[in-house]
Amino acid sequence: MNFNLDDIDRRILAALQRDATLSMDALAEAAGLSRNACWRRMRQMEGAGVIRGRVVLLDPAKVGCALQVFVMVRTSSHDAAWMEKFDRAVRILPEIVGAHRMTGDLDYVLRVRVADVPAYDAFYKKLIALVPLSDISASFVMEDNKDTTELPL
Amino acid sequence: MNFNLDDIDRRILAALQRDATLSMDALAEAAGLSRNACWRRMRQMEGAGVIRGRVVLLDPAKVGCALQVFVMVRTSSHDAAWMEKFDRAVRILPEIVGAHRMTGDLDYVLRVRVADVPAYDAFYKKLIALVPLSDISASFVMEDNKDTTELPL
DNA sequence: TATGAAAAACCACGATG
DNA sequence: CATCGTGGTTTTTCATA
Fold first, then answer.
1. Is A23 on the interface with B (CB under 8 A)?
2. Domain B7-47 has CATH 1.10.10.10
3. pTM (2 decimals)?
4. Domain spans of chain B?
5. Could you read off the pLDDT of A34-73 as tens digits, one per residue?
6. Contacts of A150 in chain B (CB under 8 A)
7. 8 Å CB contact between B131 and B85
8. Sequence-separated (6 or more) residues with CB below 8 Å from residue A94
9. CATH number of the domain at B61-140, out of 3.50.50.60, 3.40.50.720, 3.10.150.10, 3.30.70.920?
10. Which residues contact A84 (CB under 8 A, 6 or more apart)?
11. Per residue in A115-150, pLDDT tens?
12. Which nucleotides of strand D lie within 7 A of protein CB?
């Protein structure tokens, strides 16, 4: 399941997590390696699925998703049919950027991105139309002290 | 604050959010534009900060962060000195990938990535050594139904 | 280290709505 | 008159011998 990383691999990944536009030369230097050796390692980690992909990150406010909401979902009915509906809703609704099943009786946390509070309300209505939910509580994010895609290495 | 996006911009961003390795030609085709026009728009959006950066995404399990934890933090002492300590801890600890101040009396949600439960305990000790916290409750993620960096456009 | 192929980065002009 | 498309040049980076 997990790939055996050494310090050099970690340096390569750390640099790429921060900025994937680095040229092979710059990356190799950051890792303390020759350009070629660095390229081979990167390629290997891509093949092994350690590197999942390359994406651009957008500024949420500038694309009209200024509001982030954590939605705690509790449900009494945890049968297969419900699960299916829930999965479908999560897949369909692009406002849901994270859906996490938690420890402690069927309990989900949703991370939701919308423009503002009215937009959240509209989202909420879409959600409950797709899945019967017994207990929902939304908490709005006032400020992000940190919000990164960089994993600790 | 927010950039005025049209449908073509949205198509460009949607494609890049999914895969930033697309060549200009492929991206232009996805957007229904010539290569150059597409490049001009992309550059503009980079300049405006709509595109924040390009990064690689890693597989958490394969780099030894299989466990994701949501930590709810409540504090009674919300003075400036405390805030400073908290900010510092958030900055210093790489296991914290998200720190969000929430609505409803000083309340934080931390998103934390660690290897396993013992690693979470070690993180917890580091955290409370850095900041006095009156009330912490951790919820462990059992399964991700969704976890994406793609914002709804 | 060298090298050929490919893509990106940029410029200028005329067309279009 | 913004923005498009075309077609060019120069530069960089890749990927491999």
1. no
2. yes
3. 0.94
4. 7-47, 61-140
5. 999 999 999 999 999 999 999 999 999 999 999 999 999 9
6. 55, 94, 97
7. yes
8. B150, B152, B153
9. 3.30.70.920
10. none
11. 999 999 999 999 999 999 989 999 999 999 999 999
12. 3-8, 12-17
